[in-house]
Amino acid sequence: MKSNLRNKGPGVAALFLVASLAAGIVHAQADSALPAIHKSGTVEYLSGGIGLDESTAIKNASRHWPLSLVFSVQAAGRAQFASDVKLEVRDAKGTVVLQTTASGPYLLARLAPGSYSLHASLAGKTLERKVEIKAGSSARVELVWPAGTNQG
User: pLDDT tens per residue, the chain (152 residues)?
Assistant: First the structure.
């Protein structure tokens, strides 16, 4: 027996329409919750994640960016998000390709494929990591400072 919405009456069709519109609104809100994209030289990046809407939007968008960074401080057995992290990204030749201060615990960057070194500083303590960016994929790096790292 074949079924469609017209045979179910106006109530079901209206409910379906409302649900569809709500899903579209939620998707549009998630996109609009993304922070502004900035440029450092030729590298585009965005940073933020303060508040649930913005952090959810960034997490959802991260798969479309070659590099996704998460900043936190270890505290009582779990990590607490960090912001105001000074970040410097250098390419394989040692040239600085991105230099910024993160405005939240997440940073997404459009880097060309290649090898990079990350230097992230919080309250005078610097963490260094190497990352390889591959074409068509997204690298995720979590930078976690030791407990007691003061953010002030």
Answer: 444 444 545 554 444 444 444 444 433 334 568 999 999 888 999 999 988 999 999 999 999 999 999 999 988 777 789 989 999 999 999 999 999 999 999 999 999 999 999 999 999 999 999 999 999 999 999 999 998 886 45
What gap in Å lies between CA 60 and CA 62, rounded to an integer? Answer: 6
Those residues whose C-beta lies under 8 Å from the C-beta of residue 16, and which sit 6 or more positions away, are 5
Domain boundaries, the chain: 1-32, 36-145
Q: Is 54:104 a contact under the CB 8 Å cutoff?
A: yes
How close are the terminal C-alpha atoms of the chain, in Å?
67
Kindly provide the residue ranges of all beta strands, DSSP E only, lying in 24-95, ordered along the sequence: 38-40, 43-48, 67-75, 78-81, 86-91
Would the pTM count as exceeding 0.90? no
**In the CATH scheme, what is the code of domain 36-145?**
2.60.40.10
Question: How far from 103 is each of 18, 19, 93, 129, 140, CA to CA, in Å?
Answer: 36, 35, 27, 20, 18
- Between 52-61 and 10-32, two packed helices, what is the crossing angle to 10 degrees? 90
